Amino acid sequence: MRLTVYLAGEIHSTWREEIKEKAQALKLPIDFVGPMEDHDRSDAIGEEILGEQPNAIYRDAAASSFNNLRTQVLMHKSDLVIALFGEKYKQWNTAMDASAAVALGKPLILIRPENLHHPLKELSRKANATVETVNQAIKALSYIIE
Questions:
Q1: pLDDT along the chain (146 residues), means of 10
Q2: What is the separation of C-alpha 95 from the centre of its chain, rounded to a whole number of angstroms?
Q3: Is domain 3-35+77-145 in CATH 3.30.420.10, yes or no?
């Protein structure tokens, strides 16, 4: 069995590479997909497709349309979503993607540090599993495939 896993969460750290490397080291049959990780490209995609926008609000709206389209297509094709809530960056996109996974009925593994237990308690109860580390998420993936 081969799984497609959507990796939702902030794009400013290397957590995705860590998951991919650990899955590869364990020879887990997983294809990983996720949001555009090139932040500048993600911000500019609306203008790249539609042309120059009149101001920053329209630029953001245009980019959001295409980033949401990408997320929806890739999440629909995924068997499972892993959403990482880190401590350093604002987590609005992670919350949106995790909520979309729940709404789509996609199995969801939530990664969040213990100190984010309280602010994420409702979302955590909607997830299929909540863990605190990437290593725990990898163990969960291994168990699914076992």
A1: 94 91 98 94 97 98 96 97 84 90 97 92 96 97 96
A2: 9
A3: no
